[in-house]
Specification:
With 199 residues, the protein is an all-alpha fold. The chain has helices at residues 3-14, 18-40, 44-58, 66-90, 98-103, 111-128, 132-144, 148-155, 159-176.
Length: 199
């Protein structure tokens, strides 16, 4: 996942190369944003911005390679997300009428972008419905792309616990989607539903 390129970019960025920092950002941001969407939903970009401010500020203290940088940034993003969730519990959300939301113009109007957005949002919605340890493990492993030990360091758990949580989360998602419908003989049931079908 571009870890060699990422490590080189981070090293140059630590020497003051702004273009190299932009390269590191472009490599890490998509996975980081997907992870944050799984934790905080629509406010992921705001949380990511806070995380990147801290990442830029503390970049000189980072020591490691590309994979290590990916884990370090995920740790920072996770802390910012947890802070955000704590603040939300304390502060009531500002309300608006449903009609105000419906009257807002859409930033994109193409069919393809709409389908991609719906499928991504649906996937993240399903992940958010998992128990928190499973959701975070799935997001770290699948969305951020961290290996087991790196994900375990970010989450403050043992690699086996993260691997188990990710496995259980993915199995639960598969059951919700009707994908995991094997018979006792290990043969897939012919009545298996496709992604678009429901019970």
């Amino acid at each position: 996942m571009h870890d060699e390129e990422l490590g080189a970019a981070v090293a140059r960025a630590q020497d003051g190369d702004e273009a190299a920092f932009a390269v590191a950002y472009r490599i890490v941001q998509p996975g980081l944003l997907g992870y944050l969407r799984g934790l905080v939903g629509d406010e992921a970009e705001d949380v990511a911005s806070d995380a990147w401010l801290e990442i830029a500020r503390d970049l000189g203290r980072f020591k490691g390679d590309g994979a290590g940088f990916r884990g370090w940034t995920a740790t920072i993003a996770r802390h910012r997300a947890l802070d955000h969730l704590r603040r939300q519990r304390v502060r009531p959300r500002a309300g608006g009428s449903e009609q105000e939301v419906l009257d807002l113009p859409s930033p994109h109007n193409t069919h393809e972008q709409a389908l991609e957005s719906l499928s991504t949002e649906r996937a993240l919605e399903l992940v958010r419905g998992l128990p928190r340890d499973q959701a975070e493990a799935v997001l770290m492993r699948v969305v951020v792309g961290l290996d087991g030990p790196s994900a375990a360091r970010v989450l403050g758990k043992r690699p086996g616990a993260v691997r188990t949580a990710a496995h259980r989360g993915l199995k639960r998602l598969a059951r919700q989607l009707g994908v995991d419908t094997e018979t006792e003989d290990g043969v897939t049931d012919e009545a298996s539903r496709t992604l678009g079908e429901s019970k």
